[in-house]
Specification:
By secondary structure, the protein is of the alpha+beta class. It has one domain: SH3 type barrels (Roll). Helices cover 53% and strands 23% of the residues. It contains 3 helices and 6 strands, in the order H-H-E-E-E-E-E-E-H. A 3-stranded antiparallel β-sheet has the order 1-2-3. Strands 4-5-6 form a 3-stranded antiparallel β-sheet. The longest helix has 68 residues. The protein is rod-shaped.
């Protein structure tokens, strides 16, 4: 009876491990990038073979209207290089580039919308990082379980050999 329970227990553990490892698809940067595509406020930038997101915060216009020429853009990483000079009641603000003194106009509505989109992207990145850490933790636990299973299999083989030896000894003692 003990042998049957031991064999059933080992079978259950091995089956559970095979189910847990059946979805062994790794989550690479390329897989993640394919799922989280940049919106129109993001552009893909390649440096040294690595891809990263450069977040366009807002377009800079020549005048206080979106029908005027675009003279540039403020990227999220460069936002500290610009200062708001003054704002009009129509929702447009004049900005000044601290480095070169160039001025332009930005829409407050576009700026708020861009900040919201950036926050969503950052939230997705944080969730992705948490998922990646969770997957790594699960992989570590699976490796530990594999080690335990191997030890249990060795112990089971040893116990079965001992039992078989005892059975053989009992059979021989009955004949004498």
């Amino acid at each position: 009876m003990k042998k049957i329970m031991l064999v059933l227990g080992m079978s259950f553990i091995v089956f559970g491990q095979s189910v847990a490892m059946s979805s062994d698809k790794t989550h690479t940067k390329e897989n993640v990038d394919a799922k989280i595509k940049p919106t129109t406020t993001h552009s893909r930038h390649h440096k040294n073979g690595k891809s990263s997101y450069i977040h366009k915060l807002v377009d800079i216009y020549a005048g206080d209207d979106s029908s005027t020429d675009k003279v540039g853009m403020i990227k999220f990483k460069e936002r500290d290089n610009y200062s708001i000079f003054y704002c009009k009641e129509n929702g447009w603000c004049e900005v000044v580039n601290k480095k070169d003194g160039n001025t332009g106009w930005v829409s407050i509505k576009e700026l708020k919308k861009s900040h919201e989109q950036y926050a969503k992207v950052m939230q997705k990145k944080m969730e992705l990082n948490r998922l990646t850490q969770y997957i790594q933790l699960q992989d570590k636990k699976i490796a530990e379980l594999q080690t335990v299973i191997m030890q249990m299999q060795k112990e089971t083989a040893r116990v079965l050999q001992n039992q078989q030896t005892q059975i053989n000894q009992l059979q021989q003692s009955n004949y004498y």
